[in-house]
Write a structure and sequence with these properties.
The chain is an alpha/beta fold and 406 residues long. The chain folds into 2 domains: 5-29 and 297-405, Alpha-Beta Complex (Aspartate Aminotransferase, domain 1), CATH 3.90.1150; 41-294, 3-Layer(aba) Sandwich (Aspartate Aminotransferase, domain 2). The protein is built from 14 helices and 17 strands. The longest helix is centred in the N-terminal third of the chain and has 21 residues, at 60-80. Bound molecules: pyridoxal-5'-phosphate.
């Protein structure tokens, strides 16, 4: 079945605008996706009709808000393939999810001499929290190297996996290069070595259906804003036994069973990890985003995205001095590159003047940039609402920039 990109695009109000007198070409979806009207309407509806705090009051608005809030949890649980919605914890995004696991699990399980393996492809949010907790516990963060193509070196990974490794943290897809990592195999190896495995799904969730049980991981995290949902909300999925054994991360209202000055007992999961008033509108918006994405033919959407990237790679060959980063295959959503004679920052500004939004810089992946001995790159990133015309506009734009510098 063909993917009807025009009818999908029409549902995104922000894509209908002009920027600098040109129709917007939005190629920064790896940073954040645009939001369909269904998500915007769900958030507006909550604030206009149901606005109340959740889980606390007996009145109608609170009951409606709580129902919508918990319905979103079920939607996300189904989306991830979780057998139980209680295993889905609301967080602000992947950054908070990694901090939650690093501190809650790490403080009680990491000891002097232990190791956390992270790939060189990781976003800073999947490196720094591990560094902080390892420094506190006398443990060590060790990087799994990547090849010149930007692929995790599996032989090196095998060698690093010894009894000192207690956790492997790896992203499903690299935000800087688009590399799709063989996480299922990596999880299996980690488990065989007696380690846990946490997968950062920030760049994967918008591209294909997921099944955390099939992946076999212990924790999986994603951010709502990269899945057509609002900013400031995301989900951490974890294995029940692990979550139940982990101490709370934040203390406050909602996460308790009983509080007294003689000692406090805690709520069951997921509430043990959800102190304070949550981002209710965000959670409801995220539920709407999940519903929206699941209403699509996801195989057709993935095929459409693969065609966009293939077209991009094809056109790139016609641009002299363009160096593409990342692997030829097993890559999704991201076209990361350098253009000879042009600084990525200038490139970003000059493309913006033509209405084309890309991202430039280190993409919060400085260790990876160091690996390639570059300060940063230009990155065009695609989502299911992009068209072949968007890809062509990017290359027309790049040619114009080259003419300026000729
Ligand atoms: N991991 C990856 C691969 C990302 O691309 C990002 C954001 O760009 C993050 C983690 C952090 O996500 P957030 O800022 O939503 O917490």
């Amino acid at each position: 079945m063909d993917f009807d990109v025009e009818s999908v695009r029409a549902q995104f109000p922000a894509l209908q605008q002009e920027v600098n007198g040109r129709p917007l070409i939005y190629l920064d979806s790896a940073a954040t996706t645009q939001k369909p009207k269904a998500v915007i309407d769900a958030i507006t509806h909550y604030y206009q009709c149901d606005n109340a705090n959740v889980h606390r009051a007996a009145h109608a608005l609170s009951s409606r808000a709580t129902s919508a809030f918990e319905a979103s949890r079920q939607l996300v649980a189904d989306f991830l393939g979780s057998p139980d919605p209680a295993q889905v914890i609301w967080v602000r995004g992947v950054t908070e999810a990694v901090n939650l696991v690093a501190y809650s699990w790490g403080r009680s399980n990491l000891n002097a001499g232990d190791r956390v393996l992270v790939s060189t492809l990781e976003h800073h949010s999947d490196i720094v929290p591990w560094q902080l907790v390892c420094a506190e516990r006398g443990a060590e963060v060790v990087a799994i190297p990547v090849s010149d193509e930007g692929v995790i070196d599996q032989a090196a990974y095998d060698e690093l996996l010894d009894e000192r490794v207690k956790m492997v943290a790896v992203n499903h897809v690299s935000n800087a290069l688009g590399t799709v990592n063989p996480v299922k195999e990596m999880v299996a190896k980690a488990k065989a070595a007696g380690a846990l495995c946490m997968v950062d799904g920030a760049q994967a969730v918008a591209h294909w259906p997921l099944d955390v049980i099939d992946l076999g991981c212990d924790f999986y995290a994603f951010s709502g804003h990269k899945l057509f949902g609002p900013t400031g909300v995301g989900a951490l999925w974890g294995r029940r036994k692990l979550l139940e054994a982990m101490p709370p991360f934040f203390g406050g209202g909602e996460m308790i069973d009983r509080v007294s000055f003689d000692g406090t007992t805690f709520n069951t999961i997921p509430f043990k990890f959800e102190a304070g008033t949550p981002h209710i509108a965000g959670v409801i918006g995220l539920g709407a985003a999940v519903k929206w994405v699941q209403s699509l033919d996801r195989d057709a959407a993935a095929a459409h995205e693969a065609q966009l990237l293939a077209h991009c790679d094809e056109l790139a060959q016609e641009i002299p001095g363009l160096r593409r980063l990342g692997p030829d295959t097993n890559r999704i959503g991201v076209f990361s590159f350098l253009l000879e004679g042009t600084h990525p920052e200038d490139l970003g500004t000059l493309l913006d003047q033509q209405g084309i939004a890309i991202r430039t810089g280190h993409h919060c992946a400085q260790p990876l940039m160091s690996r390639f001995d570059i300060p940063g790159s230009a990155r065009a990133s695609f989502s299911l609402y992009n068209t072949m015309a968007d890809v062509e506009a990017l290359f027309t734009g790049l040619r114009k920039v080259q003419e300026l510098f000729a």
